[in-house]
Amino acid sequence: MQKLSGVLERSKKEGLSERIYLFPADGAPKTPMYAGFLVGHEWDAAVLLDSDEEGEKARKKITDLYLKEGAERSKFRVLMLGKAAGISKTDSAVEDLFPDEFYLDCVNAAYGTSINMSDLPIDGSTMITKRVEHVLKTRFGRDKLDKGKIMNQFLKHFDSWDDASKLPPGTADRAEKLFKSINAAFAEHT
Fold first, then answer.
1. For residues 97 and 111, what is the distance between their CA atoms, to the nearest angstrom?
2. How far apart are CA 74 and CA 67, in angstroms?
3. 100-143 pLDDT, tens per residue?
4. Residue 55 and residue 129: Cα distance in Å, rounded?
5. 3-state secondary structure (DSSP) of residue 120
6. 97 Cβ neighbours under 8 A, 6+ residues apart
7. Angle at 120 between CA 136 and CA 153, to 5 degrees
8. Domain map (residue ranges) of the chain
């Protein structure tokens, strides 16, 4: 997200505010623990959750545990990625800021496969990661999708993206909308 923000900022588009520090929570199930810590210390903080079943469970748990009582004092908020970025898919994650075709190209480069968009299931989740993982498991005998391998392919592309116009189609618009949503959420408490 920081690299994507940098590309947008170099193109005079809105990136993530320098006031905002990101740290990974290692999955939606762990976010309520982090939220409890942040709420308990009354930090001006937020969590950005994938817009999927796990993200919704985490949102509900955070809301039920920490934001119902005393919410008027809390400077903590929960953002759902799909809504914040204007992604129209039913389910979405950070990878869905990019076009599915681009993500699939990165998967094919990382795994040495030649998966086509037509190979991906259309029932179940709309998240590109879940659709690709299904094919890797059923057709290629993989245990799971290794997001680290895919991220290495993303990073190779980031080296050539010195301007937002070079990003895959639609990525700059979705990313800028996401960063504007995050920045606006923090502007409410300044």
1. 21
2. 7
3. 999 999 999 999 999 999 999 998 889 999 999 999 999 999 99
4. 15
5. coil
6. 4, 85, 87, 171, 174, 175, 178
7. 60
8. 2-187
- Residue found by looking up tokens 């990525």 in the block: 171
Per-residue pLDDT for 190 more than 60?
A: no
Contacts of 90 (CB under 8 A, 6+ apart): 51, 125, 126
How far is Cα 86 from Cα 141, in angstroms, rounded to an integer? Answer: 34
pLDDT digits (tens, 9 = 90+) for 148-182: 999 999 999 988 999 999 999 999 999 999 999 99
Cβ atoms of 97 and 178 within 8 Å: the answer is yes
Q: Go through the chain and tell me how many residues it has.
A: 190
Token code pair at residue 104: 């699939």
Token pair belonging to 78: 């929960």
Which among 87, 106, 110, 88 is positioned nearest to 97, based on CA atoms? 87
Query: In DSSP terms, which residues pair with 49 in a beta bridge?
Result: 80
| C-beta separation of 103 from 131 below 8 A | no
Q: Which amino acid is at 184?
A: A
Q: List, in sequence order, the alpha helices (H) in 41-127.
A: 53-62, 81-85, 100-111
| Per-residue pLDDT, 177 | 98
The whole-angstrom separation of Cα 53 and Cα 47 is 16
Whole-structure pTM value: 0.91
For the chain, the distance separating the N- and C-terminal CA atoms, rounded to the nearest angstrom, is 23
